[in-house]
Amino acid sequence: MTQDGRSYHFVHSFDEHYTSDNDDLLAPRNDGVANFVTSATPNFLNVLVPYLGTTNSVAKIFTCAGSRGGTPQLNDLTTTNVTSYLGNAVVMSHRLVEIPNPGSVVYLQELFDRRDYAYLRPRVTSLPGVTPVTFSWWHYQPSPSPNSIGLNENYTVLHETGGNLPYLDGHADYRKGSTMRAADFGLTPGTDDWSAPFSTSYQAAF
Question: Which of 186, 166, 192, 191 is CA-nearest to residue 90?
Fold first, then answer.
């Protein structure tokens, strides 16, 4: 089993500092935030910057060194707005105490490449104000063509078709992407695996 020290650093800072300063509240549920560190829009990455040091060093924490960038800028880990992490929209804007068994719910997963956006995957698919809130894209198949590293899935595949996953209770683990289920993200129905269409609609299990 392999584990990424950056994931531990990230979750440790998240759990012990941000949530304690914000009444146990998880990061805001803002998706697709461009230039996410320097943006004025709070997101699951930039809310941690005050706890992680200067903005010049955060890319090394928010990015797996084994990932690739689509541009020279994204390949440079001294660039501020670089990440290979995806947040879990299901848990964002909740308090930790509202989530049963946080040790079984993924907070982040790894994207196959680097981006300058803070994306949430799974993502919210329902319109603002509509209940129940629905989610999709906990996995993503770029078919009919594979992605730029030759794989048919984009998430939790970077390390020998697996990924390093930080959980809400602060621990991290390595999982093969093919073992992931919708329930790992706090979704219901929870038994779906990668064979389910990535656009399948789910609700939160809590």
Answer: 186
